[in-house]
């Protein structure tokens, strides 16, 4: 089993009658240093993103706008997080199979990760993931 846990992180929220503000910064609100930022948007209804795991990459995902579901599999069990707040996000450790679906219209997923894009870090086959996690020396 993957002993590293996923968890929701509540972000600072500066309430203001002019509009609210939230933030996160390196090594404070999230447990890694940010190297890359990307976002997923204009997702057609019914589409599924993800369906892969990362050998090393950690991520933090915030639903900046709208809502979507993130389903994680740690090699033993599955857990679904409903993301619909712009002031909290989901930390995903390495070696977690993830699917993202149920995107609402105009939803916007902000994702930060601890490394540059590297296709060789992806595991895109679920059976391969289940095999690798059994022998993973770090989990
Ligand atoms: P992928 O991570 O598979 O998308 P998702 O998990 O959201 O379904 O990436 C889709 C494509 O975009 C893939 O061809 C790789 C490319 N890509 C980059 O070039 N740079 C990036 O930072 C990311 C995240 C993806």
What does this structure look like?
- This protein is mainly beta and 139 residues long.
- The chain has a single domain, classed as Jelly Rolls (Sandwich), CATH 2.60.120.
- The chain has one helix spanning 126-135; strands at 7-10, 13-14, 21-22, 36-40, 49-54, 59-65, 68-73, 78-83, 88-92, 97-101, 108-113, 122-123.
- The strands form 3 sheets. A 5-stranded antiparallel beta sheet has the order 1-9-6-11-4, with no helix packed on it.
- Strand 7 and strand 8 form a beta hairpin.
- The longest helix has 10 residues, at 126-135.
- The radius of gyration is 15 Å and the shape is globular.
- The mean pLDDT is 95.
- Bound molecules: thymidine-5'-diphosphate.
